[in-house]
Amino acid sequence: MAAKKKAAPAEEVQNTQEGVQNGAQCVETPEPIEEPTPDEIAPETAENDAGEAPATPLTLEELEGLTLPGDADPDEEQAPQRWSITDDGCADWALKKIKTERDELDRITALAEQEIARLKEQVEKAQRRYEQNTAFLTSMLEQFFDTVEHKKTKTGTESYRLLHGQLVRKPGGFKPEPDHEKLVAWLRQNGYENLVKVEESARWGDLKKQITFTGTIATITETGEIVEGVNVTETAPAFSVKF
Questions:
Q1: Contact 90/63 with Cβ under 8 angstroms?
Q2: How far apart, in whole angstroms, are the C-alpha atoms of residue 156 and residue 154?
């Protein structure tokens, strides 16, 4: 039976990284390797959890070659990311990567906004052309409508059918529009308050300045009164990066 390959001691892994121009490293956990016999386990390797291989450092050059989740094909199943940020160099690389992605998003967004503005202008031109031409042709059709015999219903609606549609004239009428200020005043003065809709809400911006929160309990700061109707929910800590 062939002898099993011994795991490389930790000092050998470290030596392989000497002479690398960029000193920053991140840690990548490789795929599980064949477990050696107890006699073949090096002291450093034996300290790792059972079944886990020693960590392999990554240089900044290797980080640049990684495929991040957003760069992967969404239709393909992706292997889990087996590396972590372990020092300032790698952390700074991650910040630079985030800024690069943000700048690219801003660039694409600016291009999209320009294209949206161009398309919006075309839509506005088409809308204006439609309204002007429709108004003109409709007036011409109405003049034509008065020169031909057409049907008339009992309700007074007149129509004339053509190949691509029909011309219709409906009798005029009245459309009521309320003046709410005057109408509400009249309703109150004449005993119709049940027809007045009243909408009330708390002046939350002003009230919040007078409230002190103790956990999920809201109280008036000056009097200590417990305020009912204020729901307090706990939010998770938010981590972000700033430039």
A1: yes
A2: 5
Are residues 43 and 81 in contact, defined by beta-carbon separation less than 8 angstroms? no
Distance between CA 70 and CA 75 in Å, rounded? 12
- On whether the CB atoms of residues 41 and 20 are closer than 8 A, the answer is no
Instruction: Spell out the domain ranges in the chain.
Output: 24-61+80-86, 96-168
Contacts of 195 (CB under 8 A, 6+ apart): 187
Name the token pair of 74. Answer: 């969404």
Burial bucket for residue 44 (CB in 10 Å: 0-12, 13-18, 19+)? middle
Euclidean distance between the first and the last CA atom of the chain, given in angstroms as a whole number: 59
Buried b (16+ CB within 10 A) or exposed e, 141-180: eeeeeeeeeeeeeeeeeeeeeeeeeebeeeeeeeeeeeee
> Per-residue pLDDT for the chain (243 aa), expressed as one digit of tens each?
444 444 444 444 444 444 344 455 555 555 555 555 544 544 444 444 445 554 456 677 777 777 777 777 777 776 676 777 778 888 888 898 889 899 999 999 999 999 999 999 999 999 999 999 999 999 999 999 999 998 888 888 999 999 999 999 998 887 788 899 999 999 999 999 999 998 888 999 999 999 999 888 899 999 999 999 999 888 887 766 677
Whether the predicted model's global pTM rises above the 0.70 cut = no
Rg (CA), the chain: 38
Question: Are 30 and 69 contacting, i.e. CB atoms less than 8 angstroms apart?
Answer: no
